[in-house]
Amino acid sequence: xxxxxxIIITGSLVAASCGFVGCFLILxxxxxxxxxxxxxxxxxxxxxxxxxxxxxNVFMLMGATVIGVLTAFxxxxxxxxxxxxDAAIGVVFTSLFAIGVVLVSLFASDIHLDVQHVxxxxxxxxxxxxxxxxxxxxxxxxxxxxxxxxLSLLIVGLFYKELKLVSFDAQMAAAAGIPVVFIHYLLMALxxxxxxxxxxxxxxxxxxxxxxxxxxxxxLLTDRLGAMLGLxxxxxxxxxxxxxxxxxxxxxxxxxxxxxxxGLLFMLCFLFSPRYGVxxxxxxxxxxxxxx
Amino acid sequence: xxxxxxxxxxxxxxxxxxLIGCSEKSTTQGNIxxxxxxxxxxxxxxxxxxxDIVANVGKEHxxxxxxxxxxxxxxxxxxxxxxxxxxxKADIIFYNGLNLEGKMGDIFxxxxxxxxxxxxxxxxxxxxxxxxxxxxxxxxPHIWFNVKLWMQATERVKEALIxxxxxxxxxxxxxxxxxxxxxxxxxxxxxxxxASIPEASRVLVTAHDAFGYFGDxxxxxxxxxxxISTDAEYGLKDVQNLVNVLVNQxxxxxxxxxxxxxxxxxxxxxxxxxxxxxxxxGGELFSDAMGEAGTxxxxxxxxxxxxxxxxxxxxx
Lengths: 292, 316
Description:
Number of domains of chain B: 2
Mean pLDDT of chain B: 82
Protein name (chain A): Metal ABC transporter permease
Largest sheet of chain A: 2 strands, antiparallel
Subcellular location (chain A): Cell membrane
Number of strands of chain A: 2
Strand order of the largest sheet of chain A: 1-2
InterPro entries (chain A): ABC_BtuC-like, ABC_TroCD
Oligomer: heterodimer
Shape of chain A: globular
Strand content of chain B: 5-15%
Strand order of the largest sheet of chain B: 2-1-3-4
Order of helices and strands of chain A: HHHHHHEEHHHHHHHH
Shape of chain B: globular
Membrane topology (chain A): Multi-pass membrane protein
Keywords (chain A): Cell membrane, Membrane, Transmembrane, Transmembrane helix, Transport
Helix content of chain A: over 70%
Number of strands of chain B: 8
CATH class of chain A: Mainly Alpha
Distance between the termini of chain A: 62 Å
């Protein structure tokens, strides 16, 4: 299969998977969790390097996943204890990142160890990194992200009602006997797995954007969670495809172009959403004025 | 409501498919172009210094396509859509290795089953590479600062080109011999020039630790503010230590690098000034990337000469 198609598939899978779990983050006002994790994984890779004395993918991914889940865990714990969501995110990721910087300058300043170098992938190179599983040859990134995406769909499918109630009204959920704290931790763990797997495959910027933008755009179009989840997947896929075309046309960074087209798509929704769009609201006001 | 939502979703899917269709067309067009003109060997390289070797050894038989342009820090390089086409068309790929290219290097290792990918550093004896004592096997990748090591890289390129295109074996051997001779002269020039600096002032102060091989090969002490990793921030003590060395040894100049921000080194100059020792900035050195194409510094030899001349002029 052509390289271009694999890149579109990878981009779409990342966008769909991140957009999907990102919806819950938006509802919980934790949209910047992805960005937080992208910084917080630094100590993870440094410690993984000390333990394994290698910058091999597997070890880096393990270190990053452990710290990613820990980041989510710390943020959730602080939030449960009464710290505001955004403050909890800010405190946790800056502290972890700083620990990473201190560790690097204390012990590893003579070797090349930073997240860009050893962890973040590049979507342009995805088609050359093939892996064969059960006789099927696909890029390693496609295997990994479709695996994570399937797991996300499964978990959200199993706990759909609980997640929905917890996201919209945690107090009522608690009153109804739903284990709110457990559901929160579950969601956070899911997000950090998604994020780290996607970082390793396509780099940070695309992931951070796709966790927020498709969900936010979908939120403008619908008030129903099911439709929001569906729309965010669609928006993600459309941005990935449009972004790839832009990247081919202007010969620019692919993840950059995909992120930009997600931004453009959001702008369209922001202006022309039937209910919350700027244009439709102006039209509505005019119609009301005429009627009076 | 449900109807509306499903309709919307269907519309977006249709748009999505149409877009995929369009982009498919454009990639197949790319493949058609590729079929033409296959007389020359197409070589893709990472850093400009390697492109320079391949251009000098391959001459008219090889078309060189460097991925990283002038002034680009290889540690922070971001791929563009065009790189895919380049890597796709390449008959042979040359990269530095020793983890300079990070994850991109891993990709080249995996691509080796599809086309020859050659790390120019791979035949160099690890015994002469710089290795931090605490971390075995994690060598300093900046081998081009020692011209002798870069000559070994040239040999590696020559071997690879001959293996790939045996018909022009003699040309490659001649070209390589001519280039190696120039490098040999460059090496001698570097040794002589650096030796002309009084021994006590042979200290090269730069922002980041890339000049280790240069220091070892030509007998100049190298001190960097930052480690090799650009994520390792320099500490307050680093600045103070450096300032003390400058003041105590009466060192005249410090240097900035083409691919690293000069801010840090300016702090050191300021610090020395407060202690009553005037240090000037001795000029800009090329470290991880060469100068603009077309200028003398746009070639490997020109870049090394520029570095040596700047260092000698400022420290003598």
